[in-house]
Design a protein that fits this description.
Blueprint lengths: L2 E9 L3 H11 L5 E5 L15 H8 L3 H7 L2 E3 L1 E6 L2 E6 L11 E3 L2 H14 L3 E4 L1 E7 L6 E6 L9 E12 L6 H5 L3 E2 L6 E9 L11 E6 L7 E6 L4 E9 H4 L6 H10 L2 H6 L10 E4 L4 E2 L3 E2 L2 E3 L14 H20 L6 H25 L1 H6 L6 H11 L9 H4 L1 H12 L1
Parallel strand pairs: 1-2, 1-10, 2-7, 4-13, 10-19
Antiparallel strand pairs: 3-6, 4-5, 8-9, 9-10, 11-17, 12-15, 12-16, 13-14, 14-15, 18-19
The protein binds flavin-adenine dinucleotide.
Length: 414
């Protein structure tokens, strides 16, 4: 069997894999990305946070992203019955980008992967990682070339590398192979979603913001509406699996039935064309017992995925890529590194910040905070920072002590 040699093998060319590849290329390492799909391919997760712009910039991909003409995004609006509030991310506590984009991920991920290739990374599309052997000195990854799409028998080969980064997202390649899966603390939730021709008239709503709508009766059920720059939007609903048992019909019918239950959303989407069958994802929250081991680290969704409510997924994926690439660059330069200290712990700091906010959202406390009539400007700026993705800025008390500060604020607003 053919054995190839590379410095770094990355599983998956999503945002985590592409950003990590570019950052490793900047230090001159040979990088091979193995990607199961052909790009462009659909992915859910279309609303970016301003914090992600820092990593896009670091990875040398900013110009390509800006010039594509994605929908500008400057904040988030929340609606619950008659209550409404909006956060402008430019008005925030932490320094850094205050704006970003809402992106069809097929286009966005393709741009990032192309940019990684432009910087010298090799990307092999329609090649699939089957397993990895970490027993020797160097990890040996077995790959199947499926690029002939069945026209020829698939060819298998081995890649030997100094290190493997698993950026396989919900593929969760190494967590499955190495039995690292550990239960998420969140209940099983389901998302139904699609893209629509939204038909929303100009001025009827602010396309520069993601719109989060809370179900009028069930406050743990919520909808996203993420407008794109071409008159289309991503629409989705999230609910506990048990709540959705009462619904029958196709994914599209369930999604439409739920959208029709909210008067404001129903009115906003009265002219929408539902031209694309909806999809469903169940039980996407996931965790692992460790984010690293001998010869590997887990990035983005291949590690932990919390919940979509605050659109934090791509930002966390890119943060993990940035931290892992920095650690790996030092390791490959011969320095001694401690993956727990240098990678896992700093990454988890921000993930834990988001976790406090996600828990508080579903328990209802954070909804009380944001819809409260009287809001102190500086506290609002601190919250705006978290919503903009600055979940690692420990100068923000809602990062440094997120749970305690949130609990105290909830008590004031109750
Ligand atoms: P991915 O983007 O999933 O990329 C992984 C890649 O690995 C894929 O291209 C896949 O084909 C490839 N792969 C998998 N297995 C293999 C294999 N065996 N061999 C080779 N390649 C493989 N995030 C946001 O930031 N904003 C949002 O608005 C948002 N909304 C969401 C809504 C829902 C309902 C859900 C479930 C998630 C949402 N997310 C959102 C999260 C977001 O989708 C992910 O966090 C993000 O895509 C993770 O990026 P990644 O690079 O880790 O993985």
């Amino acid at each position: 069997q053919q054995i190839e040699q590379h410095d770094i093998l990355i599983i998956g060319a999503g945002p985590a894999g592409a950003v990590a590849a570019a950052l490793l290329r900047q230090q001159g390492h040979a990088v091979l990305i193995i990607e199961r799909e052909r790009f462009p391919r659909f992915s859910i997760g279309e609303s970016l946070l301003p914090q992600s712009m820092e990593f896009i910039e670091q990875a040398g991909m900013l110009q390509a992203v800006v010039e594509h003409g994605f929908q500008f995004k400057n904040g988030a609006s929340f609606v619950r019955g008659e209550q409404q509030t909006a956060f402008d991310f430019r008005d925030k506590f932490s320094a850094g980008w205050g704006t970003t984009y809402q992106v069809p991920r097929a286009d966005f991920d393709q741009i990032l992967a192309q940019q990684a290739e432009r910087q010298g990374a090799s990307v092999r599309y329609r090649h699939c990682v089957l397993d990895v052997d970490f027993s020797g000195e160097r990890p040996r990854t077995r790959v199947r070339d499926e690029s002939s799409d069945g026209k020829e028998p698939p060819r298998e080969y081995i890649v030997e590398s100094r290190f493997v980064l698993d950026a396989s997202g919900f593929g969760r390649v190494l967590p499955r192979l190495l039995e690292l899966e550990s239960p998420s603390g969140f209940p099983v939730r389901v998302a139904h979603f699609t893209h629509i021709e939204d038909g929303i008239a100009r001025g009827e709503f602010d396309r520069n913001k993601i719109r989060i709508t809370v179900h009028p009766e069930h406050h743990d059920v919520w909808y996203w509406l993420i407008p794109f720059s071409n008159g289309r939007s991503s629409i989705g609903v999230v609910a506990e699996a048990s709540h959705l048992q009462q619904y029958s019909g196709s994914e599209t019918e369930v999604l439409q039935a739920l959208v029709m239950q909210d008067p404001s959303l129903r009115a906003l989407l009265k002219n929408a064309q539902w031209d694309t069958p909806a999809r469903k994802l169940t039980g996407y929250s996931a965790n692992v017992s460790s984010l690293h081991g001998k010869g590997y680290a887990l990035l983005g969704n291949a590690g932990e995925f919390l919940d979509p409510i605050f659109s934090s997924g791509v930002t966390i994926a890119m943060k993990s890529a940035s931290l892992a690439a920095a650690t790996l660059n030092r390791m490959l330069a011969g320095e001694s590194v401690d993956w727990e200290q240098d990678y896992a712990r700093p990454l988890k700091k921000g993930v834990d910040t988001f976790r406090s906010f996600v828990e508080s959202w579903y328990a209802g406390g954070f909804q009380q905070v944001i819809f409260h009539e009287h809001q102190e400007a500086q506290i609002r700026r601190m919250i705006s920072s978290i919503l903009a993705g600055y979940a690692w800025d420990t100068a923000n008390p809602f990062v440094a002590e997120s749970k305690r500060r949130l609990t105290a604020l909830e008590a004031v607003c109750a």
